[in-house]
Write a structure and sequence with these properties.
170 residues, elongated, single chain, mainly beta, 0% helix
């Protein structure tokens, strides 16, 4: 596995920070089945992804943020990629997220509310014409809202809470 990425943040002014990044991944798989010659294959999988974001400071302890990102991954773990899965390309994904984050009590507590929309394409699904076969082309998506809170009660003691609503489709 080889990856190259570049990312930078640019402070436009005291309140606005812009973020941008790009990444290229290359997976080279060369599998040799030592028990039978039928499982041998080699494959090279490549992908490019981007990330764009912004943070706006509303007050010294409160910020709004937003982010758009793309990505990809193999249909299974690279280590367990077998001959049957070697013909599939990488699955593509994109994510949109926006939220607000606030620090309280001099940094001893914080909370975040975020909304998100995630979609992944070209996942493995059953062939509608033959349920015994797997094909690439399925999609899954998830939209939702998440709330997170954290507070330091005493040195070495912290309490965290998280609640989320998710609407997922496959």
């Amino acid at each position: 596995t080889h990856a190259f990425y570049v990312e930078d943040a640019y402070r436009v002014n005291e309140r606005l920070v812009l973020l941008a990044g790009a990444r290229h991944d290359r997976y080279k798989v060369d599998r040799a089945n030592l028990l039978a010659a039928s499982g041998n294959f080699d494959a090279t999988l490549r992908s490019n992804s981007v990330r764009l974001g912004a943070t706006w400071k509303l007050a010294p302890d409160t910020s709004l943020y937003g982010q758009f990102s793309t990505g990809s991954d193999p249909v299974t773990s690279i280590l367990s990629l077998n001959l049957a899965n070697s013909r599939f390309k990488l699955s593509d994904a994109r994510q949109l997220e926006a939220g607000v984050k606030q620090m309280l009590a001099g940094g001893r507590a914080e909370w975040t509310v975020a909304v998100y929309d995630i979609k992944k394409d070209d996942i493995i699904t059953r062939d509608p014409n033959n349920a015994a076969l797997s094909i690439q082309g399925g999609s899954q998506s998830s939209r939702g809202v998440e709330f997170t809170a954290s507070a330091a009660l005493a040195p070495g003691w912290r309490v965290d809470a998280n609640a989320a609503y998710t609407d997922a489709e496959f």
